[in-house]
Amino acid sequence: MSVPATVPRRRLGRGALMTLLLLAPPLLWLGVVYLGSLLGLLQYGFYSIDDFTAQLVQTFTWATFASLFSTPSNLDVILRTLLMSVAVTLACALIAFPIARYVALLRGRSKAVWVVLVTLPLWASYLVRVYAWRLILAQEGVLSWVLAKLHLTWLLDGALSVPVLGGPSLSSSYLGMFLVFVYVWLPYMILPIQAALERVPTSLVQASADLGARPFQTFWRVIFPLSLPGVAAGSIFTFSLTLGDYIIPGVVGAPGYFIGQMVYTQQGTAGNLPLAAAFSVVPIVIVMLYLALARRLGAFDAL
Prior knowledge:
mainly alpha; two-stranded antiparallel sheet; globular
């Protein structure tokens, strides 16, 4: 009686050992290289810079984090980045949903073509796309030329005259930066929503119609609630990527700093590694809180 019980146990032990051996290299890479370097950077947030010698003082202190939240210019950077991330996430969700719904309903070759079209921008280099948009949005760029041909220059002037959002041109305004962010991260919102919509049971939609619900009622009470995990999953990408990006704000947009730029500047030219580490903590904490909220919404089920 004991032989049949020990054989599966031995097989289970060998299987667990093989799994552990296979997972060991990536776990070591993640634990030592990634988390180790990240924790090594973050520990500098608890150090400070001597005001007279500009030397690093390796004594534990909360002064750097206190200055991060007590200095108005630093708070402006955090607030500016957070508002842009929220705006980009909302805009991507609004634009992506109808596209994802349309692609989810397609079948065969048409669906493959649309999936390729959605992911096509990701095939090009990130820097190429950003600099291409800078040329498009420049004062004498493609967009200005097209609007001039259509006698819609007044529309562009009106958009650029909006306080805070506008500027001399789209390539040097928050509005232009917003457009580039939405374009670059939009595929990351479409794909999770499409995956969530494809999982909506057709029987539920048919049952809703059989019970007399109008198409909008079916969408609002059946399709949309079931697609929320996909929206939440897409928002993880768009929100976190916007929150940590420093290239787009440096190439397109107004001269105001974002969190990623502050990290890059403080650890580089400014030489203030403690403040750079303190700034690095901000998106980490925000994203962790956001991930906890997304997990409650079932976002990871749509990934």
